[in-house]
């Protein structure tokens, strides 16, 4: 097994993580598929993935997952930082605890996973870190400050990591994906704080949730993103960024052309918040 490149994928219980683990193992990677509830990964185990329990916010869990890979293959050759969620809500009505939870999963746990695998990658003289960004890291959707802030953070993190580790043979890739069909939208809806009937944001919240459901219904399949991740993992000279879908290709350009006033007007009309 030492001649196989070892990959670890976080957040494999659904969507992009599940599709990515399947793509990697089918391509010949020794693949560790992780989730907080590993019993949800039986189908990936049947494909040949090693299944490991991993709560990305728990230090012991993170360390044990990386150690499991290193004990068998020496080091983690590919880390796919996919685990994450969206915490919607108006800034005025979203508690600091919810902001902290958003960053704990989407940013701090990702930083720590990088810290755990980098010593092995440096010693081996090669490795690839693939971070899952989002169109929300380029253009902020309405009532999505917490999520957008976390994804904007990954833009900076990925740039910094690429600069710092390039000379050691470590490659850093940021996947900027548009909406993808998965349980992500269902989780977003569940996590949206229910505003009081008298909330000044009640109408906007209901409209944003309706928009999210419509976008989720016509989103791209996660396998599309998984194919791009696989290509980046197999490349010895991957691009720094891979844009997938119109939300990351077209929307930022439109946002720039319209300017702040026109863009704000378009967003207000979109969610009918004014």
Gist of the model:
This protein is an alpha/beta fold. The protein has one domain: 3-Layer(aba) Sandwich (Rossmann fold), CATH 3.40.50. The chain is built from ten helices and seven strands.
In terms of topology, how is this protein built?
Layout: E1 6-9, H1 15-26, E2 30-35, H2 42-47, E3 50-53, H3 59-73, E4 78-81, H4 96-124, E5 127-132, H5 145-165, E6 170-177, H6 184-191, H7 202-217, H8 222-234, E7 241-244, H9 246-249, H10 251-271
Helix pairs in contact: 1-8, 3-4, 4-5, 6-7
Keywords:
274 residues, alpha/beta, Rossmann fold, globular
Task: Characterise this structure.
With 274 residues, this protein is α/β, with parallel strands linked by helices. It has one domain (6-271): 3-Layer(aba) Sandwich (Rossmann fold). The chain contains 10 helices and 7 strands. It has a 7-stranded parallel β-sheet with strand order 3-2-1-4-5-6-7, with helices on both faces. Helix 5 (145-165) links the parallel strand 5 and strand 6 (170-177). The longest helix is centred in the middle third of the chain and has 29 residues, at 96-124. It is globular, with a radius of gyration of 19 Å.
Shape: globular
Biggest pleated-sheet summary: 7 strands, parallel
Mean of residue pLDDT?
91
Q: Please give the share of residues in helix.
A: 40-55%
Can you name the CATH architecture? 3-Layer(aba) Sandwich
Order of helices and strands: EHEHEHEHEHEHHHEHH
Q: Domain count, please report it.
A: 1
Rg on CA atoms, Å: 19 Å
Structural class: alpha/beta
CATH 4th-level superfamily: NAD(P)-binding Rossmann-like Domain
Strand element count: 7
Fraction of residues in β-strands: 5-15%
Strand order of the largest sheet: 3-2-1-4-5-6-7
| CATH topology term | Rossmann fold
**CATH class division:** Alpha Beta
Summed up, the helix count is 10
The parts where pLDDT drops under 50 for at least 5 residues are: none
The end-to-end distance, rounded to whole angstroms, is: 60 Å
């Amino acid at each position: 097994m030492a001649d196989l490149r070892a990959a670890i994928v976080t957040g494999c219980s659904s969507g992009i993580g599940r599709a990515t683990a399947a793509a990697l193992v089918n391509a010949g990677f020794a693949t560790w598929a992780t989730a907080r509830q590993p019993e949800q990964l039986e189908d990936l185990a049947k494909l040949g993935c090693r299944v490991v329990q991993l709560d990305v916010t728990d230090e012991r869990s993170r360390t044990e997952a990386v150690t499991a890979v290193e004990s068998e293959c020496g080091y983690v050759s590919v880390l796919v930082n996919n685990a994450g969620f969206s915490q919607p809500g108006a800034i005025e009505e979203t508690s600091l605890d919810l902001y902290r939870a958003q960053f704990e999963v989407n940013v701090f746990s990702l930083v720590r996973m990088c810290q755990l695998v980098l010593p092995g990658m440096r010693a081996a003289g090669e490795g690839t870190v693939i971070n899952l960004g989002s169109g929300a890291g380029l253009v902020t959707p309405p009532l999505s400050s917490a999520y957008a802030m976390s994804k904007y953070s990954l833009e900076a993190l990925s740039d910094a990591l690429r600069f710092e580790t390039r000379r050691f043979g470590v490659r850093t890739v940021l996947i900027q994906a548009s909406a993808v069909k998965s349980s992500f939208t269902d989780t977003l809806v569940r996590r949206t704080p229910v505003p009081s009937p008298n909330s000044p944001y009640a109408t906007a919240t209901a409209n944003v949730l309706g928009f999210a459901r419509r976008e989720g219904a016509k989103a791209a399949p996660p396998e599309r993103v998984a194919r791009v991740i696989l290509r980046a993992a197999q490349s010895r000279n991957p691009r720094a960024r891979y844009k997938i879908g119109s939300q990351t290709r077209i929307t930022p350009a439109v946002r720039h052309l319209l300017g702040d006033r026109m863009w704000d007007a378009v967003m207000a009309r979109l969610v009918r918040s004014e």
